[in-house]
């Protein structure tokens, strides 16, 4: 059974992409998204229009995973045409390339590391750190991790986090964040004023709201689940963080397709250069990766993930309000 660097090196052959397949999956995903958005725009009947709108939201998630793989240089690297398509798509979904690349690279290099900056990930405090916070600090910490904040990811994570905050903090470095915001505002205004609120609702708002909520939750649950582990900087190891702090999110084939196999997140963190369409192949070929720490999109697992608040080093696990309340009383 391979471990550590040996295991990472063993996955290296799987980083070779099938260029034709990458293009086919990109083009077919864009076509499916275009068809779903066309249905949401043109169909006059409520139910099929809503179905098309929801499908468009899910397909936006799939396209984002393809965009995400491109930014990792896992697919279509050095293709000028792909770069143009991906840059435009990143702006369309309010994830401009400059801030996404910087924050996501940091996330991969520091995943599950305690007391590091929470760039590109949800903040995590230890039990003792949380108990030492002021009331205002606790409220802000819990607000960022609150289920409603994650569900409202369209506003909290993407409009404010990815675009407004990044541009305000570094205007020259993240000027594309401002461009994305302006284009998004123009699109909303044009559709709303030209075609009415119903077309705006089904064609613009529902798809991106659903995609943003799904994206925010997937990003949260892939590293905030009951079996996850967090480590001090001194004891942190890249491959251990990948396998013990990143989940294998079990999904049915439909959701696996819509999320571009991102459920194999432990494998993605082990080697981010593996194309998304080869992740199931790696899982099948490596017994070492099949005994993964899992979660799912079942309601009970979603609730279990949302209940987690802080890392308890003594218990070696994430804990929720019940344990925090007991700890707070003990300190008092």
3D structure, described in words:
Strand 3 (310-312) and strand 4 (317-319) form a beta hairpin. Helices cover 65% and strands 4% of the residues. It is mostly helical. The chain has one domain. The model has no long low-confidence stretch (mean pLDDT 95). The chain contains 17 helices and four strands. It has a two-stranded parallel sheet with strand order 1-2. A two-stranded antiparallel sheet has the order 3-4. The chain is globular and about 60 Å long.
Keywords:
332 residues, two-stranded parallel sheet, two-stranded antiparallel sheet
Topology of this protein?
Blueprint lengths: L3 H7 L8 H24 L3 H26 L8 H13 L4 H14 L16 H6 L2 H11 L1 H5 L1 H17 L5 H21 L1 H25 L16 H7 L3 E3 L2 H6 L6 H6 L8 H7 L8 E3 L2 H9 L2 E3 L4 E3 L1 H11 L1
Parallel strand pairs: 1-2
Antiparallel strand pairs: 3-4
Helix-strand pattern, N to C?
A: HHHHHHHHHHHHEHHHEHEEH
Number of helices: 17
DSSP strand tally: 4
Taking pLDDT < 50 over at least 5 consecutive residues as the criterion, the unreliable ranges are none
- Quaternary state of this entry equals single chain
The secondary-structure class comes to mainly alpha
Tell me the radius of gyration: 20 Å
Largest sheet: 2 strands, parallel
- Enumerate the strands of the largest sheet in spatial order, edge to edge or round the barrel: 1-2
Number of domains: 1
**What is the helix content?**
55-70%
Coarse morphology: globular
Distance between the termini: 48 Å
How large is the share of residues in beta strands? under 5%
Q: What is the average per-residue confidence, as pLDDT, rounded to a whole number?
A: 95
